Each structure stands twice: as structure tokens, then as C-alpha cells.
Batch of 2 targets.
Target 1
Amino acid sequence: MSVLRIWFGFALVITLTAPSLAQYVGREQDITGLRLGQRVLVDDGTCPAGEVKEVSGAKMTPTGIMPARKCIPRLGPKKK
């Protein structure tokens, strides 16, 4: 019974952490096929030092997904 609980806990952790992983791109134009709820980190230098732009699929419109943009703290070293 405890092995089942361990596997269930492991699967739960993987399920909850996988969507939180964001993709890095260098320009906002490089984002293709943004999905509702998807987060993409854009490192184009438009945010203050120590922050990176987060573009997320925020709202469904008749023409597609409307992106939301905000600057968030950079976690870890700058990625190229």
C-alpha cells in the first residue's frame, strides 16, 4: 500500500510542476501557436535589470488567443 502512495505522490508532483516550466525565447515574434494558459519568457531587454518579460495566453477571443505581458523576477542566470 505504501508503494502505491509513493507512486501516486510522484505522479502528482510531476503533474503539478510540468505546467509551471516556461519556455525562453529571444524575441516576442518567435512565439508561435500560443495556447490558453501557456507561459513564455521573452528575454528581449524590455524589462528592468533582474526581470524578464512573461507572455501568457490570457484570454480567448474570436480571432484567437490574446496574450498578456508582464515583467517578472528572473530566476537564475540569464539564458541565451
Note: The beta strands are 23-25, 39-42, 51-61, 64-73.
Target 2
Amino acid sequence: MFTQSQGFPQNVSKIVFACDAGMGSSAMGASLLRKKVKEAGLHVNVTNTAISNLTTDAEIVITQDELTPRAKNKVPSAYHISVDNFLSSPEYDKLISQLHGHVTEKDHEELAAANVQNTSDDTLLLENNIFLNMEFADKEEAIRFAGRALVNGGYVAESYVEAMIERDKITSTYMGNDVAIPHGTEEAKKAVLKSGFTVLQVPNGVDFNGEKVRLIFGIAGKDGTHLEILSGIAVTCSDMENIEKMVQATSAKEIKNILDEN
């Protein structure tokens, strides 16, 4: 779903995905759109940030629909787009079509440098942080389990778990395609000791505000070092065939291999 404010800008050079903390849903959305921008041969810088960190140079701002009013208040001059599914590629295709006639002739090397991801770290996702055949009474129980796994893995302090619950109350961490990515609030970044992930496979699903979630990625990100694997998760989970493979996987190694392939 698109909700638009200002007229589509001329000479677009910067698109920003924004969410509450700037490290989860917005990073995944930016990763998907960045890939599509590159495939379309366009030279537009696509980044992600917390809404509180938005700046006036953002020409297009993309947020989950419930966060759009906050983003508009922060940068009223921008062209705002609301989405209800960060993993829904048809919405990005519409934007790509609009961009084709509204891009600048920026220096290609400068824009390419702006889109470089951080180097990967194999300790971000360990097989013992992938949990199979989980059952949860509700989303809070699922989020707490994911948070506890991050605590036990030495990725976050205890306070981060409550911040994950708070973050989901601010706006749902459901991403679309049966996927949720619970993570802490912007203020909780200080509780992150190092970047890491946990994956919960929930074959029968758990309700996230009326949406059935079968894969849960609990996320802790520090200093941007989690962005490369998050990008891989986004690309993988944009394809429902991959979702089905991970939901039906019978080992942690199988899930990790599916994620590593993208």
C-alpha cells in the first residue's frame, strides 16, 4: 500500500527507509530496494535510519504505515511512502518505475560507495541460535524467547528483552511473508554488546496482530555490523519458496545454508 504526500520529486538522489530503531525493518526494506535499484541500472542512494535521525536531504522516505505521521513531522518536505509489508516486492517495483524518469546524473562511484555494506561476521548467526518446531501461546512469549536466546548468546544485556517487547508495541515487527523481526528500541542500542541473530521456526504459526508468523528473526545490531546478514535475510525472505523451505527444514544447518546462499 502506498500513501503519498508531496508530489514525486524531480532529480531523486536519496531514498531513506525509516523505522523506530533504524536497524531492523528499515534495514531489510532498504536492502531489497537497493538490490532492485541496482538491477534497474539506476544510481540512487538507498539507506536506512531511525525516524529520529531523519535529515532534510531525504527526498523520499519510506516507513511502515503507522509510523508515517512521525516521519512526516520530522521531514515534511520529503515525499513519503507508507508500506504495510517491507518484504513485498511489487510495491518497490512501482517506485522503480517512477524513479526511471526522475533520477540525477550523480557520480556513480560516489553513490556506489554510499551503498557498500559492512564485512560479514560468521558469529552473527550460529546454528545453536536456530530453534526448530517451536510453539508459542502468543507473540510476547515468542519475542521473549528470542530475546532470551540473544542474552544467553552474549549479544545483549537483560534489559534488551523488555525493549524488544516495547518495540513491538510501538509498531508491529511483522514484516510480511510470514516473517517477524523483533528487535529493541532505539534507546536500547546501548544494551547491545555485539551484533547477533536468532531464528525461530514456528511451523504452526504465532499471531502477530492478526498476521500469522512462521519464522521469527530476533535481532541485535551494533555499529552497523549486522547489516550484511540482515540484507541476506531480506532477500531470502522476499521469496515465499525460501520461506517454505525454512519452515519445513529439519535441521538448523539447513536453515543456515538457505540464508547463506543469498
Note: Residues 1-5, 104-120 have pLDDT under 50 and may be disordered.
